[in-house]
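Batch manifest, entry 17 of 40.
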Amino acid sequence: MPSKIIWTCCLLGSLMSTPPVIKVVFVPDNRPENSQSDTLFYQSDRKLQWSDFQAAPPAHPKSGAVSYSSFAYVGGSIRKKDTLYIHLTLQAFHIKSASWVTPAVRDDYSLAHEQLHFDITWLVALRFRKKITNMELTADDYDSMIQYEYIESFREMNRLQEAYDNETSHGLNHAAQLRWREAITDSLKTL
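Output type: structure tokens
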């Protein structure tokens, strides 16, 4: 009889040490726009306006406007029975006080160029979300795995932003601008 008790205890011990199932849940960031805030969070139906560019341009700018956008995630985790839930909120944002425009380019075409910078930021954020959703995370190391992918995605965002400005000559090459707009629009539709 004691061997059965030992076996049962061993079985319970092995069940309790079984790694949890990991579920990543991305929670939408549905905050309403705050006109008093310096931060504008990405919303597909809210396009940039020139009033979102509040910084003073530098004395000798290399371009006519700069849109400061980036992305981040916030979240936490909770374990319920055999499942570790990781709740993350993805945010792409534009900082008004760091973004500027010169009077010479304050037109709809230039604003569309700056909007595409913001769209590229959102695209990379969505790609990051897809990577994390498809990853096989481990309970012991999920945080560093997510952080690593975030850093890689941040680098991708910077490379794309630079390539966009280089290939379009900061929006002066209209044909390249059109190609980029179509490519980003198509990529956003698939995600």
